[in-house]
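re: that chain from earlier
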Amino acid sequence: MYIQIVIWNLEKSDATVESLREYLRDYAVDAFSTLRGMRMKTWFADAERGYWGAVYLWDGVNMQNPLSVSRAIELIGYPPTSTSVFAVEAIAEGVSAIESFAGVGRAFEEVSAAADPAGESA
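^ sequence. v structure.
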């Protein structure tokens, strides 16, 4: 297995963390869910410092080029500032209350809050 880390410094881009969250909700999460060989992708951001990126976990077999489905370069306006691939030495899975990663993350929390501005559950 392999870990791939991709990072953009957004200081020269018109894209913002907030605008890229829309990209996650409207396209990227579903599109990346179809990549063969990708076990998981986690997007991360630091809006204050202007960083956007992702960590991929690849099974090492049939690794597709993630840029084949990505629109990030188009939205940000330039390739990643940094890209690295590392061999996985070990993985530990902890005990979590979260059963599935579907719908987890700030990009989806904002949609939930907007749908229910009072913060009440249905």
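The beta strands are 2-9, 38-46, 51-58, 82-87.
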